[in-house]
Amino acid sequence: MENINIEQLIKQVREDERKHYADWYSSRLDKLSTYVLKNKMEYSASAELLQSESESINRQAQEWSYV
Questions:
Q1: Which InterPro entries does the record associate with it (predicted)?
Q2: How far apart are CA 49 and CA 32, in angstroms?
Q3: Residue 55 and residue 47: Cα distance in Å, rounded?
Q4: 6-20 pLDDT, tens per residue?
Q5: Which of 21, 45, 51, 52 could make a disulfide contact with 41, Cβ separation 3.0–4.6 Å?
Q6: Which residues contact 53 (CB under 8 A, 6 or more apart)?
Q7: The pTM is what?
């Protein structure tokens, strides 16, 4: 019985974590979109900004893998 509760708790924590990061990434994309529009960025500059953000996210994911 205790194993089931632990498994459910782990499942809930993982779901909460996924929701948290989905919200965070959504918010970050909204901010980037606002920045691009506010500054009337060219297509290439917008693409560079998105590429930079993608690289940052990949670095974070690699760091989390080592924890």
A1: DUF2732
A2: 8
A3: 12
A4: 989 999 999 999 999
A5: 45
A6: 28, 32
A7: 0.74
